[in-house]
Amino acid sequence: MTTIKRNKLTDDQYAVAREGATEPPFSGAYNYEKRKGSYLCVTCDQKLFDSEAKYESGSGWPAFFAPFDEANIVNVKDTSHGMIRTEVKCSKCDSHLGHVFPDGPEPTGLRYCINSIVLNFVEE
Q: Residues with catalytic annotation?
């Protein structure tokens, strides 16, 4: 795992990526992003999602039906807040990205609900 220096991230980015916080719904820079491109981990620049897998879920966070590469993410059982969910983390640096739910569109039926604040978008 990559060691992350505290000063590389803003306070809000650090709270989400390293402490598992969640940005407020509908507040993220990429919630309504429509351009073609790639979404990278803000902490380590690993490619996580592609715009081709992004869709409008209405949840208030960017949603993707699949990661760029399954090897680039890690799914972890999350029992916080009295719920059982699946947390999504970056496989390279262990940053918290969001959660994945089984209520997404075809072809996967998954909804990767990801915090904008832990992503960097690179337009094609």
A: 113
